[in-house]
Amino acid sequence: MKLPRKTLEKKIFADGYRLIYAIDEVGMGCLAGPVVVCAVAFEKKFFNLRHKKLQGLRDSKLLSAHQREEYARELFQVPGFKFQVCYAYPRTIDKLNIYNATRMAMKRAILKLSNSKSEFRNPKQNSKIRNSKSKIVWNFGNSNLDIVSEAIPVEVPPREPSPLNLVFRASDLKSIVLVDGKTKIKGLKMDQIPIVKGDRKVFAIACASIIAKVHRDKMMMRYAKKYPGYGLEKHKGYGTKYHQVRLTFLGPCEIHRRSFAPVAKLI
User: In a designed cystine with 192, which of 56, 168, 177, 224 is the match (CB 3.0 to 4.6 A)?
Assistant: First the structure.
């Protein structure tokens, strides 16, 4: 089995880019629940180091649930790792269609991540960012995947900002977006490279796919408790035979996509 490679990311950094975003989605083919997209951001220093516990990381569809959660935990503990999760909910999907709704969520995730305050350093500064010794819990949505980090960069005090310890927006750095799929994200004014089956070819996109999948699976487990009887905890909203049998028996619930044929015919 071929694992996603880091060749593209290394070439991009060699070409002068300072920051790489990668984005992927999970759940486009489901009959129920939202599409979840995840954008991740990497600096060059990540690819200069060996991350033994991330060896074997690949497309989320090729991993077990346990493996996905373990890789997600490891990613969250990498200093400087950033991500943003966004959603396209069923009502939006039914209104815009699945493709447009997903692309809108992708655009929103990249913009939120690029405009957020970040510990990414301006390459023109020879500054060192101090680390806090206090523990901070990273809440992974509303899931049980809470990651505790021991080394969170300290932000500049608002009263007397020091020129040697600045917090920059990620958008201040020359960046590029690696998009899983064959087309660029429309309306996103950033350099982009669309990559068909990118989650199987590019390491950064595979990372995004894992976080999106873990996050969505947690959401669907909660939905299963709210809407019992459909087996959402098993198939996560995909159109399995069991799901369609239960859908016919119970009828659609609030999170079913009414624009999808198997659901539409029951309305």
Answer: 177
| H or E stretch at 88 | strand 82-88
Q: Is residue 228 part of a domain?
A: yes
CA-closest candidate to residue 72, choices 217, 191, 182, 200: 217
CB 156 within 8 A of CB 165: yes
| CATH number of the domain enclosing 172 | 3.30.420.10
pLDDT of residue 215: 97
Domain range enclosing 131: 7-264
Report the distance separating Cα 46 and Cα 27, nearest Å: 29
Q: Is residue 2 part of a domain?
A: no
- Known binding residue 24? Answer is yes
pLDDT in tens, 206-262: 999 999 999 999 999 999 999 999 999 999 999 999 999 999 999 999 999 999 999
- Is 217 annotated in some ligand binding site? no
- The one-character DSSP state at 166 is -
Residue 172 assigned ligand-binding role: no
Burial 187-211 (b: 16+ CB within 10 A, else e): ebebebeebeebbbbbbbbbbbbbb
